[in-house]
Amino acid sequence: TIPCKVDVVHLLDHVEASAVAVGAVNVVEVCRTAAPRARLIGHNTDCLGVQRALAEVGVLPHRGSRVSEVVAILGAGGIARAVLASLCELGGVAEVRIFDSDAPRAAELAAEFAGPSFAVVAASSALQAAEGAAGLVNASPVGMAGFPVSSHGSMEEFICLKSLRWLADMVYNPSETPLVKRARSLGLKVVSGDRVFLHQGAAAFEIMNPGLRADLAVMESTLSGLLVGATHIGKGPSTPEQVAPAFGMGCIAGVGKPVSRLVFGTARLGGTKDPLELLDTVWAAGVNTFDLARSYGGGQSEFILGSWLKSRSIPRSSVRLITKGGVGSEGSTWVASFEEDVLDEELKTSLSALGVPYVDCYMLHRDNEGEDVGRVVRYLCGLVTRGFALSYGFSNWRYERVVAAAVYADTHGLPAPAAVGPQFSLAQPARPVWPGSTFLRNAKEIEWYVSRGIAVMCWEVLGKGLLANPAQWSTEEASAPAEADVEELEAKSGGGKDLEKGDAFRDFRIRGAYITRENFARRKQALALAEARGVPLAQVAVAYVLAQAPQFFAILGPRSATHFVECLPSIELSPRETEALKGVGLPEGGAEQPAKRPKI
After folding, report:
1. Beta strand 27-31 with 39-43: parallel, antiparallel or unpaired?
2. Are 276 and 266 in contact (CB under 8 A)?
């Protein structure tokens, strides 16, 4: 994948024409018959996948036909390049119009492919690209699993244009996107993304196994179990129970690009033995989003991640960065601070450490409820206007304060908060885990965040190990400290001044929050499900968080690559499994209802 499939090109002995046209290689054939050494031959099966999928449905006039068409492509990334190269091979096209939100990228792609085959132009809007076109190709991420349905609205309008005969959606998970469904309802010819995905996989198989033909029926059967609503030629969509065994992608309002729903938390990155190797493992797993804070490791986490980004030559556009500010250190119990000049300097320091000009989302780490919410919203919107962040949000703000912030933004015509950061996991805390922190208290809060399209960045999804290690704590071996005991320990530690060294304090806070009968019951249910599905307990815990809604993201920050891989969700929970795991569940609404404690 990017950037490797571009970087590898100059290391090969030969590159096939389709890969040359795209400028990328995703399969390297090792030809051992050559002497004195094996030859490395580069292929691009994305091109073959697009060609075969388009030919399968017969959307284009035959090469040599007097009829030629206008095709609109929405998006100018790697798959758009594959589509253009395929159209050159298939013929029957007079003009291609490209639109991308990144106008220079669209113009660059149009200039690169302009030639004798057909005219290629960059359009100033999606509507301009689609008007008068016979074919529409969605080569953008809009429509992939995790994106809000509202993101599809404008695209669905385009396929009502009278000139359109066919649609090709390169999004393959789910295959039945709203765009595809609408096109089918209008009687258009449809090429769904899972067909492209299937055919590129078949092409790769045949390259790797010379002389063998890929069995498409077997590959279709396998694919239908992996993708949401995978389709087959001549068949309808698969049943709704067929779900994707991956964390998938979501979105944060204002960011405009896919955000992995599994987010790597960097709070303990400075304490890892080999942080760069860990980050390589995280990146290779498909995680493109990182949760940071100026306070993490005294700024060390941001510096390490910035060094990694630079050393790996990762483009800024490929990574999503969320950082937080406005609190003191752990030793000061994270007291909130809201001085605009200080916050400005703090954010500039974060950007310098990361080596980037902006972050995708900037969040205040704690709340000072004495501050006027309108003043806070105006300042954060100012950061977006000044280009320091694409969006803003609140970590560890009470639900009522977030609602007030959203109402203020709506009333004054300002961008609304895009993200919140409460604790949420299968293990429901009996009280806030850390001083000044918050947790989702009831279903009412969840429903409001979802209705607003606010990204919910959930931390401590493993309940500090309760949901990762089946042997950690039990009602017989461990007891939760009373609130009075915690307050006494805080008082003895000088109001929190020595808490960075206070392991006993941390243990009291963690055990006091998570050790409840209900949480042990949930862990028991989760462990039974994990054994039935053949996965570690931690994977069920992560999948539970992601199953709440597409706007839910799970922050995971293990200190070793091995532990990270163990936690990677390879399953998706069904609604029935999710409800069963809730056990006593979240209260339906109203005030917080602390969980019962075991007798000590």
Report:
1. antiparallel
2. no
Region 145-173 average pLDDT: 68
Bridge-partner residues for 15, per DSSP?
A: 42
Note the pLDDT of residue 34. Answer: 63
Q: Is 5 a catalytic residue?
A: yes
Say how many CA atoms lie within 13 Å of 502 toward its Cβ: 22
pTM confidence score: 0.58
Contacts 24+ apart (CB under 8 A), 405-414: 405/373, 405/376, 405/377, 406/452, 406/454, 408/373, 408/374, 408/377, 409/377, 409/381, 412/374, 412/377, 414/377, 414/378, 414/381
What is the per-residue pLDDT for 237? 30
The pLDDT, as a whole number, for residue 37 is: 79
DSSP string, 434-446: STT--B--SHHHH
**Cα-trace Rg, the chain:** 26
Residues shown for the chain: 600
Q: Spell out a b/e string for 561-596, using b for 16 or more CB atoms within 10 Å of the CB, else e.
A: bebbeebbbebbbeeebbeebebeebeeeeeeeebe
Of the residues 5, 257, 324, 464, only one is catalytic, namely 5
Calpha distance 397→568 (Å, rounded): 28
Model confidence over 569-600: pLDDT tens digits?
888 888 889 988 876 444 444 333 333 333 32
State how far the alpha carbon of 95 is from the alpha carbons of 69, 110, 116, 121, 485, in Å: 7, 11, 11, 8, 74
CA angle 482, 488, 491 (to 5 degrees): 145
